[in-house]
Amino acid sequence: MKWNSQDIQLFIKEREYIDTAVVPLYPVSFREDMKQSVSMTEFIQLLSGQLEKQFKGRLLMLPGISYLKTLSEDKLTSDLKEWEDELISQGFKHIFYITSDSDWKTVEDKLTGGLIWMPSIPLENMDDQYKNSILDDQVKQLLNLFVRKWQNND
Amino acid sequence: MSKNRVSRRQFLNYTLTGVGGFMAAGMLMPMVRFAVDPVLQSKGESDFIPTPQKVDEITEEPTRVDYKFEQVDAWYTSEETGTAWVYKDEKGEIVALSPVCKHLGCVVDWNTDKSNPEHFYCPCHGGLYTKDGKNVPGTPPIAALDVFPIKEVDGYLYLGKAEPR
Ligand code: FES
């Protein structure tokens, strides 16, 4: 389900079936790593769009969290924990974060939800066909990961 | 002889009317076009989308066919990829099924559930469909997979808009 009025209506009606929340994490920087933070955001947006399409009926794709790269790790982690607590209390059985920002890996074990880290690929210099085949590949890996998690927990 | 001669005044009249008419036509034609074109476009060929699938290469095994189309979302147009499951049935007729699960809209896969081979399987809540797209009772989906109208153009498969059964 996407974060739009039409899908949310369905979500409210069929809530028992949608047990997974996915939160994209988008780094924002205006410093020397600005370009990098943009391409990370672009890449994760593309991936999460595909992911939502494949698993529309079981996951809710949240609008995503943009955060300043200058914030401290502690602050970022505690903010994210608040999201997590709310999602858990609202009955989501599976929570996934999806990001290209490798800094999250160091705090991975402080989180209840699963962290999916996908290294961002510089898509801007690729022709469309190549780009699509690369994305397809990445999405396939991602799908497997979800299916495996679901199977382990069902 | 002299009676049939075109006078200067007549000559000017004719030419001016001619040129004027031409100019008027030049202005009107695009306007008429503008009004009529959308009507012409909404039917016929343009409803069918070409796929890269050659018709004579379709087998009895359902295969994924991806195709590209333009989607207009309010004022925003984007290129989208669509998918169909395509195969030949026992009668040799081509069947193209929509991969969108009729339960809550996940994408179904062919033959991926080990305990139910030769079925379309939805990984989200275990929805099952037989090869012809009928939903298996007792699994969440309540309807059969949508079917694409198909067409062959120059040996390639074209798909219409998927319809519920
Ligand atoms: S979306 Fe396919 S079984 Fe629920």
UniProtKB/TrEMBL annotation, chain A:
It comes from the Bacteria. InterPro entries: DUF2487 (IPR019615). This is DUF2487 domain-containing protein. It comes from Cytobacillus horneckiae. The lineage of its organism: Bacteria, Bacillati, Bacillota, Bacilli, Bacillales.
TrEMBL record, chain B:
Residues 86-159 form the Rieske domain. Its main location: membrane. The keyword Transport applies. It is found in: Membrane. Keywords: 2Fe-2S, Disulfide bond, Electron transport, Iron, Iron-sulfur, Membrane, Metal-binding, Oxidoreductase, Transmembrane, Transmembrane helix, Transport. The keyword Membrane applies. One of its GO terms (molecular function) is 2 iron, 2 sulfur cluster binding. Gene3D superfamilies: Rieske [2Fe-2S] iron-sulphur domain, Single helix bin. The chain crosses the membrane at residues 12-32. This is Menaquinol:cytochrome c reductase iron-sulfur subunit. It comes from Cytobacillus horneckiae.
